[in-house]
Design a protein that fits this description.
The complex is a heterodimer of chains A (177) and B (209).
Chain A: H1 10-20, E1 23-28, H2 35-42, E2 48-51, H3 55-67, E3 71-77, H4 78-81, H5 85-92, E4 100-104, H6 114-119, H7 123-129, E5 133-137, H8 140-157, E6 161-165, H9 167-170
Helix pairs in contact in A: 1-2, 1-8
Chain B: H1 19-29, E1 35-38, H2 42-50, E2 52-53, E3 56-57, E4 61-63, H3 71-81, E5 87-92, H4 93-98, H5 101-109, E6 114-120, E7 123-124, E8 130-131, H6 140-147, E9 152-154, H7 158-170, E10 175-180, H8 194-204
Helix pairs in contact in B: 1-2, 1-7
Classes of the chains: A alpha/beta (177), B alpha/beta (209).
Amino acid sequence: MAEAADGRAWYEIVRDVLKRHNVSLVTYVPDNVLRPLIEAIHADPFFTAFSCTREEEALGINAGAWMGGVRGILLMQTSGFATLPNVLASLSVPFSIPTLMMVSERGTLGEFNIGQSLVARTMRPVLDALSIENHTMTRLDEVEFTVDRSITQAVATMAPVCFILSPLLTGGKVFAK
Amino acid sequence: MASLANHPANRDQAKVMNRYDITKRMVGLLHQDEAVIGGIGYTNFDLWAASESASGRRQQNFYMLGSMGLAVPIAMGVAIAQPSRKVFALEGDGSVLMQLGSLTTVAARAQKNLCIVIMDNGAYQITGGQQTTTHQGADIVGIARAAGLTQSAWAADEDAFVELIGRSLKEDGPWLIGCRIDNQKPVDTTERDPARIRDNFMRGLGVRG
């Protein structure tokens, strides 16, 4: 996995940007690709981090926390995102809640599970149908700028944003027999 | 941990109460600074109706307009963000059945400042009264206890409900109060204006000035 010029991996850059923006609540449904980010966040007492039973639940917790004055982000994999269209359309978007989402992208560039490859194709159409800002991050040197600017924009415009972590950035999940 | 030995009623023994009446009683016990999240459907409508008074409508309420099942998660998020504020989730039986996992999350985090109130009429009333599985015997309080919410009880009647709400205001939770309710229509309909609902709520919580 690539490192930045200063030696940080993608998940260390993400962690540092979240801290800088005071995004202190991290809810997630776990994923192997996200594991180093989840571990880095749990290792840092700045964050309140815990797993949820469903992505919808995690989104609801983050929405409540934001209305209560705390910023949060939801970490999930592609199949988890596919459970969210109803709550994005009935909570985040109409109530103008800056739901921050980070998705580790399955279903492409070497996917071995047909279900993942099919459900992955619903993600960008859903984001586009709801006009939700989204960025696919493929290069380490873009991570800081993309996450930093997009959190600023989400908060300023009170709109959700979705960061898609491409296997080109993370290495993805390798075929396992 | 608080003992609930004086609230032994099971679902079959609990009196069938009126949703508007007990919501009004609950709102009357609040001190104006507690947050209340109203799940979708008639639970939400009667919270809206019960929160109007001569001095205006209670500002610390959030009314969902969809996102069925998320009253407990949203309330938990508010509770995490504002640990010194008591937060109530009002949810119907059909709604909580959709997000039972959230009860385990509340229990796992031992969210002290959270109280969940379930309005159980055994039906999806707003869609025509089709039966939910609580009508077939599923017991939300039993499910909650098994999820780890040990301070869960059925309100045997209105007096028991008032006592349980009073205790949830004074003592650490998380709490879950099960309420059997009738199939009366709600008293009013929530104004469906999400921007206004959210802005009011955030001002009520002191997040916006």
